[in-house]
User: Fold these one by one.
Assistant:
Number 1:
Amino acid sequence: METLYRKGAPPVERCLASAFAKPTARRGSEAEEGPPPTDPCTLLAALARQALIAEAELTPKPGLVDRRGPGAHTDLSLALMRRSALAIEPFIRLMAFQSINEHPSPRLRATLAATGRAAERAMLRVTNGSNTHKGAIWTLGLLAAAAASNQLNPDPAAIARTAALIASFEDPHQSSSSSHGQVVAQKFGAAGARGEAINGFPHIVEVGLPALRAGRRAHAPEPVARLDALLNIMARLDDTCLLYRGGKLALQAAKQGAATVIADGGAGSLRGRQHLLALDRRLLQLGVSPGGSADLLAGTLFLDAIEQGQTWLGSVGAASL
């Protein structure tokens, strides 16, 4: 398949059927993926799942779950992150189907929100109550819905603009109780996940993707290019996960630490590697994890795959640090 958005795509009935198909267990290798999906709904969901697993497996990430261990978390593991990504995938397929031939509207927003809540329940079931991907369901669900709505235009900025329009509508069935992210956003004046979406995902479109492309142009190994994309996001994002767990001290430590890695050549340089590992130790000491930045890295990898017309994202794992 040369492109995700091709003429003669199968009818939406196939997307509906795929939305309820039972996912096959996968272990991360391209050979085990089988042939690429033949309809856009299934392909978008597969790319979203691959993006979540690729983000989780990327190593070494400061404070985050990776191949070395749980990072600053006490209830998460790499195996749990993989199971969570598989559990979420069918709901991303359904969100994509729900958005085909649909323009952003209050009705579409409410429909996607209901599916997102179902995805959260599925996530909590397979993780025994651990929040592995609540923020990622919001980010990747919106982006997959917007991509399905824009199925003739694989441009990341156009997809992000459509996602912003969808996010701008209120969810009429939202609980009166605020999430951790909403509480922190109000307390510290941070944009939070919804603000990021309403603004068109600037930390993906204007930060993560350019950093990823720059790394590739410089012939950096793919894990290094992805780590540098994460660090660029961390250096600029008011990450509500950091603010919730560690306040302004944690956010400042993460931002300054990530900026120092970038200034000293990024994850691929000797001094950059030293600073990266020092940042990891500092976040572990503070007991905090930049989960919002990780979600946006997954969104970056997702939109990058769509832009390139990929059917396989690839889990490149560890950088040789």
Number 2:
Amino acid sequence: MDDQKSAETQGATADTAGNGTPLVKMVGIEKWFGKVCALRNINFHVGHGEVVGLVGDNGAGKSTLIKVLSGFHLADKGDIYFEGNMIHYSSPKDAKRLGIETVYQEQALAPHVSISRNVFMGREPTKALGFMNRKMMDEESMGAITRLGLRIKDPEAPVEALSGGQRQGVAIARVLYFKAKLVILDEPTIALSVKESQQVLDFTQQLRAQGISVIFITHNIFHVFQVATRFFILSHGEALTDVKKEDTNIDHLIELIVSGRKEKA
């Protein structure tokens, strides 16, 4: 309980540091695939040090919205602001440069490769002659993993030897090390055991305690309700509600998702 209070306090401090300007603000976002409207006039924001639960049933538009934010899709209409500045993407690399990192449900890890190599995948430090600096990779990867509260002793162990929760931890440690300001978790607890799911929820709290904002995408209300400070519900590409945790409960959120009823502002 004390750890949770600490995370909430630090998260509130980080949000205040934003001086009222959201870390991310998406205004009037629309996305079409042919004649199908995947997103219709979406207004979405994430504060500094905030955990937002992006929830909805399959096909609600959650993944499309996040792919627009992370640069995989270009919006057909609308504007995106990051730290108060309007941004224009040409690729996901642009989002990464800003500090927007996504951890997908498939984790994008190489199972047969070591933990440290997975943390630095595609960004390996090298020595003067161009050889990978394995010592640095081992030390730095273990540092990031330890800061996340994950107990792993051997950086050379293959990822395939880890549990599902530990693998998610390695993926999250990677974005933590590379100074993410916003971490997008795409169905991070799917196919995990109860114990592993709780581990991922703890990782989420750790990110917030360090002032990192999180978008937690899921259709599992029971998981995200433990860690989110606000909930944004989508259905068939439209926003149903944007509600703070203290103003709702699990039954209310489930009723909205099942009914598809849009709440009045």
Number 3:
Amino acid sequence: MEKKEQELISVTIDKDENGEIVTMIEDTPKKKEAMSLYDLPGVGPATIEKLEIVGFTDIMSVAVATPGELIDATGMSQNAVKKLIAAARNSLEMDFETGDELLKRRENIFRITTGSKAVDELLGGGIESGGITENFGEFGSGKSQMAHQLAISAQLPREKGGGNGVAVWIDTENTFRPERIKQISKAYGLNETETLANIKVAKAYNSDHQMLLGEKIEDLIKKQGLNVKLVIVDSLTAHFRAEFVGRGSLAERQQKINKHMHVLSKLADLHNFAVYVTNQVMAKPDTFFGDPTAAIGGHIVAHNSHTRVYIRKGKKGTRVAKLIDSPCLADGEATFRVTEDGIKDV
């Protein structure tokens, strides 16, 4: 069914010099129709096919793209690509918005429970949609256990702290275990087969494959119609750390991680799903006081993560989650336990 323009008419009533009523009818500006890629200047069927192959399927995706990305995808000149982006942005009226408008838009943000009330309270209610939450810590600290818990929590109804949708898992360290999903879902009284079917898992064999899988998430949403509400990357930096060795390759590694996280952040914002990434750590030998543990990825990972949590082992088998960085939450700590039934309070 075609969309029709909504016409608004203003009526002005006035009197002439003889006292006769004069009615003037003026048309107000018509509401803009939603544009498609075919409405963009200099774009034909062949160019649209090239754009769609790499994931540029609508006006918004073109509007937020960089000139370099579109040049690589279409082979167009830089001037032509700039006109393309400008036309897409003008059609969407991408202007500033007021704080109250943004607050109203953020009412669509939801949070996914971690299974622990203490950790949820630390995070303001759980893992937030529309951004990236990074958990870093040493081996055995519970990062992947938390990922399994969240993959199930994402399927719960909103009123139970879930996302009422599907989870996507990009596995870089062979950490996903369907047996663990069955174990936790049984404790929640969920159908084990259905729960596993609502988790889409892909193994990434190198950093380029990992970045490609990140871009393919949009295909799951648009082409397959999946209601993706959580994306898990476990772990974020394993392949990059193994492939780019030495200071000479550090700049290239950081650029690729930056691009990968930008894609995840952009998709999370556009489609309102939560991103949970785990990160490896290293020991800083020049630290003489305090905890020498530092996350891999440096400032690039830190700046791209909206919320950062450091998980460490506690006493008597417990785990301690420490909120390191958040745009709106105060720093703090919460203690939890990893059990057969999932993540639980102590």
Number 4:
Amino acid sequence: MRKSSVFSLFGSKQELQLAALEGAVEQFTDEVWGPVAGERPGLPRLLALCDRWLAYHERGAMPGGCFLTTATVEYDARPGPLRDAVARTMQRWFGVLEREVATAIEAGDLPADTNERDVAFQLNALAAAASYGFQLSRDPEVFAVARRSMRTALAPG
């Protein structure tokens, strides 16, 4: 199929990119968040989320690595609707992570002085590093390193 034929289905290259972002977010949500939503709130659900997140990347759900990491790096400095959509998506994801960390604090699974934003940042950075680290090296050990590092970030006290 010709590139112009694909664009014509969406109206423009930008609409195609926005649809691809929406599809990637939906797939990630279905495969990472959905399966753990019923876990016990607190540290058990947060750890299950981290495991699903890394497994999603490990099994190559997106052949080029983490779609959102790639989109964030590619569009962070490009003003426009695509950058704005990526920024909103990442804000929502960080919100999910921060709420999950807060739930773990409230459950007594993490110390009361834990900073939700810091932990959400660390978890996202580790998952992104595992994704691009694997893409560059093809060494599956990066996922084990990320798992250990996530558990260290979530260690109670």
